[in-house]
TrEMBL record:
It comes from the Bacteria. Residues 537-612 are annotated as: C. It comes from Pararoseomonas baculiformis. Belongs to the heat shock protein 90 family. This is Chaperone protein HtpG. Molecular chaperone. Has ATPase activity. It is found in: Cytoplasm.
């Protein structure tokens, strides 16, 4: 064995590539530890596999990865009892950027039986070089299993490296990082433990962090989702759910399955039993965690669409291609197919559970508004989501579906009628539904913010159009009137143009309606454009530019309108009365009068006149 230290140049324009790794490839410096632990876990798995064939000595009992910070020496050591590297391996794997021993080894396993293949993480040959983000010098001492020789590879990441003979009592690898002055945090055991818990908590190989001279476990070491369902208790599922999402309740639904064939992945997903508390509203991305061979990669892979973002859990795959940094997933067909499969599985679960009305009501009250977003933004799943929607109604207690609504439609009814507003309770008392109630026509009461948007996108259900009762003219003449609709209608032919002229700056039209019973007037939106609720939302947001003026609908059977119709016949002034009618309609819809003080004065005058 030569005692000469050999100096070599890195291959493949390493100067430029190392600078890329250190300064641009990774957005978070802590990633280096994930990469080195992944490599160490691969090496242990590889030795275990080769031991099965007799090609390498067996692993020692309790073999794991040890992480040893030394503040005095300013070094961080990652040690593993894995397959190790010979001199040629060190030069080939660490001396050439993008030369991955793991990838080459994976190719050599093409003939191996699936059950015997180790769970290898590394895909590219640059993860090791992330060490230079935090280290000014890296030393690798390694001894190949089955060999008595050990070698030391060392570099400062400036374009060259050295190889020299070394000693190591057992096969395996020690990586020593000489930590930079601005990376002191990576010499703190608690910081190292936190990083391992975040990125490698479920690696089955034990990971130890040495703290005050004592070995402390840093990872859980059990990937629950990899176990057969028959071996997992409900308590274990609940414990994992609480650990994963920092929740305190029990999951409403647990989905655990393994997909094989064209796709190979395992998923363990939870639908929470309660609505999570969010300090900041507006987060719309799915946070289902993506793992590759148990190693956490990201929770930003958008494995579920935004309208299923309440689902929590893990998807773990064996063969998903990753880019070199593992931080940005390649836009591969494989990932797209996994997304479709996971979304489809969640939708199937919701459809099955929706059959239990009482249990489904718990889910709907927590996450219904989020699910409705899918109607607005996801044409592919719009029809399926529509079947899962639930509503308050003017006709029945509790929640009802669109299918149930159709089963109760009256003869002659042409559409599914909805009324949107801020409160279901207030909507149930709205004059807008008087005529519908009198004819026994059901109206769905929509009180979520998203309800102002999605009906337009859905358009219809089972070929029945969905119509807002505040938009356009609703014709209920084909539906037989009930007993609540009484009284003779006044002739309003002269009254309507007089009211329209008096209110020409405030309304686009005045017309009679048959959808009022007890109320004198009501507002409606023109046939085209947003309905009244949408207009109010736009006004609150300061975006009501171009909004159409409302339509004032009057009830010809109401005593007040009969009196005004008679007054119109005699040519009396209707200016004051017209203003009062409009303000009454606004108040009924939850708006303020145009001039609250003037409105109060007019009402007081009318009351005084009536008392006299």
């Amino acid at each position: 064995m030569s005692d000469t230290v050999e100096r070599h140049e890195f291959g493949a324009e390493v100067g430029r590539l190392l600078d890329l790794v250190v300064h641009a490839l990774y957005s978070d410096r802590e990633i280096f530890l994930r990469e080195l632990v992944a490599n160490a876990a691969d090496a242990v798995d590889r030795r275990r596999f080769e031991a099965l064939t007799g090609a390498s000595p067996a692993l020692p009992e309790g073999a794991g990865v040890r992480i040893i910070p030394d503040k005095d020496a300013r070094t961080l050591t990652i040690s593993d009892p894995g397959i190790g590297m010979a001199k040629a391996d060190l030069a080939e794997n660490l001396g050439t950027i993008a030369r991955s021993g793991t990838r080459a080894f994976t190719q050599s396993l093409a003939e191996a039986k699936p059950g015997d293949r180790p769970s290898l993480i590394g895909q590219f040959g640059v993860g090791f070089y992330s060490a230079f983000m935090v280290a000014e010098r890296v030393e690798v001492t390694s001894r190949r299993a089955g060999s008595e020789e050990a070698w030391l590879w060392a570099s400062e990441g400036r374009g060259d490296y050295t190889l020299a003979p070394a000693t190591r009592a057992e096969p395996g690898t020690d990586i020593v990082l000489h930590i930079k002055a601005d990376a002191d945090e990576f010499l703190e055991p608690f910081r190292l433990q936190a990083i391992i818990r975040k990125w490698a908590d479920h690696i089955t190989i034990p990971i130890i962090v040495v703290r005050d001279g004592k070995d402390e476990p840093a990872n859980e070491g059990t990937a629950l989702w990899r176990k057969p369902k028959s071996e997992i208790s409900e308590e274990s599922y609940t414990e994992f759910y609480r650990h994963l999402g920092h929740m305190f309740d029990e999951p409403w639904a647990t989905l655990h399955w393994h997909a094989e064939g064209a796709l190979d992945f395992t998923a363990l997903l939870f639908i929470p039993g309660m609505k999570p508390f969010q300090v900041v509203e507006g987060e719309r991305e799915s946070r289902v965690r993506l793992h590759v061979r148990r190693m956490f990669i990201t929770d930003e892979a958008s494995l579920l669409p935004p309208w299923l973002r309440f689902v929590q859990g893990v998807v773990d795959t064996e063969d998903l291609p990753l880019n070199v940094s593992r931080e940005m997933l390649q836009a591969t067909p494989v990932l797209a197919r996994i997304r479709r499969a996971v979304t489809g599985r969640v939708m199937t679960e919701l459809k099955n559970r929706a059959k239990d009305a009482e249990a489904y009501a718990r889910f709907w009250e927590n996450f219904g508004p989020i699910l409705k977003e899918g109607i607005w933004e996801d044409a592919e799943h719009r029809k399926d989501i529509a079947g899962l929607l639930r509503f308050r109604s003017s006709a029945v207690e509790g929640w009802t579906s669109l299918a149930d609504y159709l089963s109760r439609m009256k003869e002659g009814q042409e559409a599914i009628y909805v009324l949107a507003g801020d409160s279901a309770e207030a909507l149930a008392r709205s004059p807008q539904i008087e005529g519908f109630r009198a004819r026994g026509v059901e109206v769905l009461l929509l009180s979520d913010q998203i309800d102002a948007f999605w009906p337009e996108r859905l358009g219809s259900f089972e070929e029945k159009p969905i119509r807002s009762i505040t938009q356009g003219s609703v014709d209920l003449s084909k539906v037989v009137a009930g007993e609540g609709e009484q009284g003779e209608a006044a002739d309003i032919a002269k009254l309507v143009p007089l009211l329209k002229d008096a209110l020409k700056e405030h309304v686009s039209e005045v017309r009679g309606t048959d959808r009022l019973v007890d109320s004198a007037v009501v507002l409606a939106a023109p046939e085209h454009g947003p309905d009244l609720h949408m207009q109010r939302l736009l006004q609150r947001a300061g975006r009501d530019f171009g909004a159409s003026m409302p339509v004032l609908e009057i009830n010809p059977r109401h005593p007040l309108l009969r009196k005004l119709a008679a007054q119109a016949e005699t040519g009396g002034s209707l200016e004051e009365a017209a203003g009062l009618l409009l303000d009454l309609a606004r108040v009924q819809d939850g708006d303020s009068p145009r001039d609250p003080a003037a409105f109060a004065r007019r009402v007081a005058e009318m009351l005084a006149g009536g008392m006299g």
